[in-house]
Amino acid sequence: MNTQILSRAIGSLLGQGAHGDLAFTRAFSRDDIQQILKDGVRSIGEWQVFAIGTATGEGWIRGDQSVELRENKGKPVFFLIDDRSAGAGIAGIDSAGREIDEKTLFKEAISILRQSAERSLMKFADDAIKRARHLGGRRNSTSLRQEFEFFGLISQKPNEAGRMLHLLGLWPVAGDTAAESAKLLGESALMVEKLLMPPATSQAPAMRISGLVLSEPSADQIASLENILRNSGSQPRAVVLETIANSRQLWLGNLRPAFLDSSLAEIKIISWRRPNGKLLAWSGLKSVATEDLPHLIIDLEAPETKLEIRWKTEPETLPRGSVTYEVRVLDRKSVV
To answer: How many of the other CB atoms lie within 10 Å of CB of 194?
Structure first.
């Protein structure tokens, strides 16, 4: 965690303090607060910084001690509150001071990072976040905290931008620069979908790996990947991806699935209708005299009822496993 940037963000939000001023945040865990104190953050501008909780060490105070500081009306004070252990001594702090909430704090911190980072690095980060938010074709949320940690780490270590993708839930990729890693962002999301998300997770690890059609994988790569997938069912996905991030041989680019070397240039859906407007029999749709739109009539006693979709691709032939097709049926705005 980039505590220097967090200090600047807090200072920007606090502004100039006066005697008796009090502000606080509950945005950090105990470990976060320990790191902030360890990095020497004891004051921000005119503001004195104290942590409230049961932990001991320089910079920590108990809840009852915070009351004394509030009542002394001395230099402006900013509290880092460990909500899990602060206790009843901080009762009334909400009315006595100003809170900087987590969303406001990390949004400001990200803004500061953007001001000093290279444009190419920020573009990489923005594109990665967009990919993470639409992983698996669903609308996912990435917290501002996640985004700040990602922004912060790639700003400090731009040559590791591809590895850091695991912080957003994406598969780590090879590349010495953000520009190189950016070329694999789409495929990074696809790796997660093919190996770590339903419906793929209903398959055995060996089948999932086989479906990638890897180019010249080593025995060690296969064994390591299979072992990780075998254990993935009992671990959060973030833990699985962190394990992959710590194994360079499993980064996308060092692993070369078929879809890396072949790409779909165009897809054209074949119409359900003939040139004269009549429905093709293979579609499974029926014309209704009083309706313009065709109907799919589901007969529970006729199991052969189906809705068929056909398409053509460019190029016409693609290597097995290089493309994944997903068809969804929508009822208004929801997926049936």
So the answer is: 20
